[in-house]
Every structure is written in structure tokens, then in C-alpha cells.
Amino acid sequence: MRHTSPPVRGRYWPAGRRVFTRPRPQADISLPVFSDLRAAWTGRIELQANALVPLNVYLSDDAGPLADKVARYGGSLGAVVRLSGLPNHPVLPQHDAALTRLFRLAAERALDVDLHVDETDDPDSRMLREVARVALRERFTGRIVCSHCCSLALQTDEYIDATLNDLLAAGIDIVSLPTVNMYLQSRQAGRTPRWRGVTLLHEMKSRGLRVAVAGDNCRDPFHAYGDHDMLDTFTQAVRILQLDHPFADWLTTATRAPAEIMRLDNDDSIGALAVGGRADLILVRARTYSELLSRHQFDRIVLRMGRAIDTTLPDYRLLDDMN
């Protein structure tokens, strides 16, 4: 989920450009509600909170209190890695300062880090490598996940190679959002899009990075469609990212890899089949990948702890009073 930047307030850089933002008291509102929902849905869905805020927040006095609140509710620390009011390239001292503060706050509280990075078609946007550079310098030992990373696909082979080396050294996990990134990137009214908008999952996986596919926004201003169906997400990923011929173990990008990234892999039956496991799985009539990916599999059976659950889709009219 993305958040728009709050009104600009607070300090100035010497150049006189106001670039710091102070977060609204949204954390005080959202985190308690999230905690209640997480408790109510325990055993049915794994919910994790991420404080996804503008990077500017980590240049303000609000960063520490925000990190404390996130730690109190067992979340991860995050940011959209760009600075309001400043270009994303060249990399500026402010970028370094904000990322350094983010990683230090996370390390002090034993928090993982979850970032939205380079969601743009600008080949000069190179925050992904900057994240890896700062993480390595800070010797950060928590888990780091970077999502989107679109602009990497438009950069030179030499720069890509160096970036992948840094990502591997920093132990950074990558999540691609194939449907929303193809939907948003290269979008211009009256003009056919020129590229798919996704990051270099094949090159990342072959280099040894852990990669996953996921959904991002759903029926909102950033992505007008979708219903949080991970089977559909994997189906679209196969087509968009060409995860076939061979299929190999690409299915793990929607199963085991996300479980590992979310630190759920202490249970061998989450994201995988295991003797004596929890039996959380989807049963379909398809016998081959071709059959699986050619239909929506609406007649699927979903097991939770070995029991079939109701898969009736909710009526859209349930949301009418929210419009």
C-alpha cells in the first residue's frame, strides 16, 4: 500500500529548499487497529505491518518515535526511497543520511526493513544500489526486502552486474509486482507502452538472490483492478516475466520464497508441502502447468489446517457504504 506524502513542514537544508516532512499521527491510528485485526484473523491469515512512509521522515525528529511504535506492534520499518522536493539522481547526501538513520533505527530495535525502490522508468534512478551500499556499510543484519526495482531493467549491463553483486552481498530480497508495475510503468495517454515495467527477476534468481512475486495495490488509484488472488498473481507473472519453458521452480516465488521473506519458514509446512504439516494449500483440477495457467480455477478447494474453507467471493455491494 502506498501513502501520499504529508504536508511539508519542519526543517530546511542550507539551500533553502524545504524537503523534510513530518508524518501525520497516522501511526497512532493505524497500528492499534491493525493489531486488533491481526488478532481477530489469527490462524486464518498472516498479517504483518510495515511503516511505509516518505524517506524524508528519517531526516526529522519523528523518525525515532515512529520506529518505537513500529517495534511495539511487531512491524517492520520502511520507506518509499525518494525524497519529496529533491530529484532521485544524482544520489545526494540527504539520501545517504536518511537511509543511514533508517537502518540504524531498525538495528537498534531489531526490526526488519521493507522498502519501495525505483518504481520508475527513469534509468538514472539508482536508489536500489544505494540501499545495498548503506546496508553493507552499516553491517545491517536484519532482513531487507526491496520491491518494484523497475528502473534496473533500463540500466546498462555493467551497472546491473555491479548492482546484483551488491544486493547479494547485502542479503537483500526482491519482490516484483508484475501486474501493477506493467499497469503503471510507461503509461501515457494515447501512447502504447514500450516496456513491461518489471525488474530483472531472472538475472536476480540466477545470481542467488531470493525473489518473490506479489500483488501491490488493488482497485485503487494505483491499480484499478485485482482481488488479492495469489494464484492469479503467479499466473500473470508467468506471462509477464516469462517464467516458463522451463517452469523450473518458479512456483516458489509465490509460495516458499514469500514465507521465507516473512520469516514464516520456521514452520516447514508454510509455503510448502510436508509430512505432518499444517495442510494449508489450494487444490485445483489442473493436471499440468498449461491447464493450471489457462483457466482461473474458480472451482478450487482451499484447505486451511486441513479443512476446506468457504471460497464464495464477497459481493461488491458490501463496499457500497465506503464509496
Explain this structure to me?
It comes from Paraburkholderia solisilvae. InterPro entries: Amidohydro_3, Metal_Hydrolase, Metallo-hydrolase_Enzymes. This is Pterin deaminase. The chain has 323 residues and is α/β, with parallel strands linked by helices. It folds into two domains: 242 residues, TIM Barrel; 45 residues, no CATH class. Helices cover 33% and strands 11% of the residues. The chain is built from ten helices and nine strands. It has a six-stranded parallel beta sheet. Strands 7-8-9 form a three-stranded antiparallel beta sheet, with no helix packed on it. α3 packs across α4 and α4 runs parallel beside α5. The longest helix has 16 residues. The radius of gyration is 20 Å and the shape is globular.
- The oligomeric status of these chains comes to single chain
Sheet-strand content, in percent, reads 5-15%
pLDDT < 50 runs, ≥5 residues: 1-21
Q: What's the average pLDDT?
A: 90
Indicate the structural class.
Answer: alpha/beta
H/E element order? HEHEHEHEHEHHEHHEHEE
> How is the main sheet built?
6 strands, parallel
Tell me, briefly, the overall form.
globular
Strand line-up across the major sheet: 1-2-3-4-5-6
The beta-strand count equals 9
- Radius of gyration, in Å, reads 20 Å
Helical content stands at 25-40%
What is the domain tally? 2
Short description:
The protein has 323 residues and is of the alpha/beta class. The protein is built from ten helices and nine strands.
